[in-house]
Amino acid sequence: MTTGGSELISTADQRFAPQMELVAARADVLFGRRLEWSQLFGGLAHVTYAVTTEQGDRFVVKFLTQEMDDFGLMISIGDLIANTAAAGKSGVGARVLQAFPEVPAIVLEYIDGRTLDTPDLSRADYIPRLGRAIRDLHTQAPPMRNSIVIWKFLDDYLELLDRHKLTSPPGLLGWLPTVREIQAALAVNQLPAVPSNNDLLAKNIMDDGRIRLIDYDFSGMNDPMFDVGDLAMEGDHNPGQVRALCDAYFGGHDPVQYARARLFGIAAQYTWSLLFVGMDKLLSDSPAEAFDYWQEAVSRWDWTRAKLEDPSLESLIAAASARSGPG
């Protein structure tokens, strides 16, 4: 097919042919060039393509799933685009070359690197690099457009469950009071909000010689320990590995923030369990057709329940909420 002087060659999902034509006709880096589109698999919320020109230049085009915004499963598409651009300016995220909110789609820098696998997150050689990369995003990106906390997502997902009469994994809602205790503990020693990714599973991390953090569906200004704790949870870090990640982030040990990072990991996993319930039941056109969103919700809840049942949780809550100094 041809559009705007550009010839598109693709064996990709033809459902996106109209959007592909539109982006090819409007994107400055694609217009008038012969293009080959190749779908990049692994994303759970959107559909992404690598686009190669006849000159060998490569770009990434991400088609955003409008229903993720419509149901409040992620931040708004406008905030997502703005925050992706902010992260790109830090050098940690991919640079945004052009955005088309009306499609909706983003044209991004192509990162020529390796996407990490979950076991990489707990490798001794990766943990310090990951901690420093999170710090780089937090300190080098300009402020993001929105402020967001895990508790806003949690409340939104609970409201979706109620409104749409959705079923959650057995036992999950019964532990909500304990999660609220964690919420109260995490409020005691909050750190100033910084530009945060808030979704650091392995699929959102690449290594091109530098650790790159991609995909900003849940991003915003947030307590920095959320990113640290969320990554530690995704890597299923043991306490020593969480400490190594925190120490790399701070350049030394902070016992209170270490405890807060561990609690944020529990809060994140509890909330993401509910996210996958919503994605399973509410998305009419699954971005990742072969992926079992319900099973993901169940497995994440199983991980969370084990942490909530652990007798050490009480001391962790006490450590995170410890007050220092007079008063």
Please explain how this structure is put together.
The protein has 327 residues and is of the alpha+beta class. The protein has two domains: 2-109, Phosphorylase Kinase, domain 1, CATH 3.30.200; 115-320, Aminoglycoside phosphotransferase (APH), C-terminal lobe (Aminoglycoside 3'-phosphotransferase, Chain: A, domain 2). The chain is built from eleven helices and twelve strands. The strands form three sheets. Strands 1-2-3-4-5-7-6 form a seven-stranded mixed beta sheet. A three-stranded antiparallel beta sheet has the order 8-10-11. Helix 9 (255-282) packs antiparallel against helix 10. It is globular, with a radius of gyration of 20 Å. The N and C termini lie far apart (70 Å).
Give the overall form.
globular
CATH superfamily of the largest domain: Aminoglycoside phosphotransferase (APH), C-terminal lobe
SS class: alpha+beta
Q: In total, how many domains does the architecture comprise?
A: 2
Order of helices and strands: EEHEEEHHEEEHHHEEEEHHHHH
Give the overall pLDDT as a whole number: 92
Termini separation: 70 Å
Helix content: 40-55%
Beta percentage is 15-25%
CATH class of the largest domain: Alpha Beta
Number of strands: 12
The largest sheet has its strands arranged as: 1-2-3-4-5-7-6
Which spans of ≥5 residues are poorly predicted at pLDDT below 50? 1-11
Might you state the CATH topology name of the largest domain?
Answer: Aminoglycoside 3'-phosphotransferase, Chain: A, domain 2
